[in-house]
Design brief:
single chain; about 220 residues; alpha/beta; seven-stranded mixed β-sheet; 7 helices
């Protein structure tokens, strides 16, 4: 008998059961470089990393500069949960976002997350709600071209975790992602959506309209 959606909810976070492979680490490095180009300095910024992974590798590197980091995933490493700058929420997306205060974050990261969600529009709408006016939401997702290479790596070569690919619900080219961002509340003039990582991923940098604006 086929499993229901409720039965197919993730039970572990990325990186919890086994360490990332070399291919995974290279992909993470490329994504991190792009996000740091979008936000060169995190000093003084309140950051939300949703679907951050068990070890929250990206957000962990920001703890010396950001005054607060909100981490959400199914499970989080113990030292992160104990960190004075971390608000740790163990739960599923997008439901876990509802307990956060509106307009409370300067930067929100959804890195390799939407493709795992049954309701990506809900997660994006919540991210718009949580971003302060002038804040930025960064979205990184695999593209349809990336689907071929990810599945080759996972299912044939064994250089990426097959369980992660089996958890994918969708892939996104800019033409797929852009309408979701607009429906979530972002104005077209405040969205940059483009291919990166050799066309294997789609990246979006979305500003929530309002003061202090793009120059903040």
């Amino acid at each position: 008998m086929a499993m229901t959606r409720a039965e197919r909810v993730r039970r572990s976070s990325y990186g919890q059961q086994r360490a990332p492979t070399l291919a995974d680490r290279f992909g993470v490095w490329l994504s991190t470089r792009r996000m740091r180009r979008a936000v060169p300095d995190f000093t003084g910024k309140r950051v939300g990393d949703f679907g951050c992974g068990y070890n929250a590798t990206f957000a962990r590197a920001l703890l010396d500069r950001a005054p607060q980091v909100v981490l959400i995933d199914v499970a989080l490493a113990g030292d992160l949960k104990d960190h004075s700058k971390v608000k740790a929420i163990e739960g599923t997306l997008p439901q876990a976002l509802e307990e956060l205060e509106a307009e409370s974050l300067d930067v929100i990261v959804l890195n390799s997350v939407l493709e795992h969600l049954w309701e990506p529009e809900w997660a994006l709408a919540e991210s718009w709600r949580l971003a302060r006016p002038g804040g930025v939401v960064l979205v990184n997702v695999p593209s349809w071209r990336g689907k071929r290479w990810l599945e080759l790596s996972a299912f044939r070569l064994g250089t990426s975790p097959a369980e992660e690919m089996d958890d994918h619900k969708a892939y996104y080219d800019p033409r797929d992602l852009w309408p979701l961002l607009v429906r979530a509340g972002f104005k077209p003039s405040d969205i940059r959506c483009f291919r990166h990582k050799f066309g294997l991923n789609t990246f979006a940098e979305c500003r929530r309209a309002g003061a202090p604006g793009k120059g903040s």
